[in-house]
């Protein structure tokens, strides 16, 4: 029996790492050097969902050429939050996160997570197969007062999260409903990954730790 292929996660996201760990999938991390803002700026006509796919692809392709990714399946993911048709990524700054929450409090938006898998097992001389897909879910927020928003932002948790929220941390207190795959909201849909690996003739269950 041939050995299961290695999985490389092209992301520094602790949330994505936790999802793979919980799913029993071993992996290593190689963080991409992709400039997310530059890619978004270079594609001004891309909608929120398409932007998530573009960023996921860019991250996976960037890491796939790394020597340490040779012979592995490289998984890139990126999330974009959509409200009123406008794309929102990571707020980075507290003031931006506060403004985001003032807009989305009591409302429903949509979180898009793009997935892209590059198969480097054929070596550098062979054109690398690659597949991608989008997983989206609607997220409904509670009516949150200014004091709670300020307290949440002060924790720093939402600053590096698309849409300035989480559903697997403190932000869960302010989310009343998720319609769709909750893992997609957290940052990586395992069911979507399973389908993409199947397209590459790899069974996700063959990766499970035993």
Largest sheet: 7 strands, mixed
Return Rg in Å. Answer: 17 Å
The end-to-end distance, rounded to whole angstroms, is 15 Å
H/I helix tally: 7
The shape is globular
* Low-pLDDT regions: none
Overall pLDDT confidence? 93
Total beta strand runs: 7
Work out the strand percent.
15-25%
Fraction in helix: 25-40%
Structural class category: alpha/beta
Write down the secondary-structure element order: EHEHHEEHEEHEHH
Could you characterize what this model shows?
Strands 1, 2, 3, 4, 5, 6 and 7 form a seven-stranded mixed sheet that branches. The protein has helices spanning about 15-20, 35-40, 50-65, 95-105, 145-155, 180-185, 190-200; strands at about 5-10, 30, 70-85, 85-90, 110-120, 130-140, 175-180. The protein contains seven helices and seven strands, in the order βαβααββαββαβαα. The radius of gyration is 17 Å and the shape is globular. The chain has about 210 residues and is an alpha/beta fold. The two termini are about 15 Å apart. Helix 1 (about 15-20) links the parallel strand 1 and strand 2 (about 30). Helix 4 runs antiparallel to helix 5.
